[in-house]
Amino acid sequence: MRARKSHPALIHGTIRFFESPEPILAFERTEDSERLLCAFNLGGKAVDWHPQIAASWTATDLPGCTGTLEDGRIHLPPYGQCILSRK
């Protein structure tokens, strides 16, 4: 809840969904100059996602984010999440 309060895009931002393989749900939230990419693994096995857009994003230090971004690959543990910010 604290993360949402400190990031207006998570509360009021517009939403744009990305195509991603199952079981990943990915979307971007935008409010003013803040842009956040939110990726969620809805499955019980770890998954890697290599979106072409990953190079233009950077990892955040938001609490509860269990996923990682490395070399253009988003790694999501089972039922994990990753929230990235635009560079």
How are the SSEs ordered, and which strands pair?
Blueprint lengths: L1 H5 L1 H5 L1 E4 L6 E8 L2 E8 L5 E3 L7 E3 L8 E3 L2 E4 L4 E6 L1
Antiparallel strand pairs: 1-2, 2-3, 3-8, 4-7, 5-8, 6-7
Task: Give a structural overview.
The chain is mainly β. The strands form two sheets. The chain has a five-stranded antiparallel sheet with strand order 1-2-3-8-5. It contains two helices and eight strands. Strand 2 and strand 3 form a beta hairpin. It has one domain (2-86): Sandwich (Immunoglobulin-like), CATH 2.60.40.1180. This is Maltogenic amylase-like C-terminal domain-containing protein. Residues 20-82 form the Maltogenic amylase-like C-terminal domain. It holds the Pfam family Malt_amylase_C.
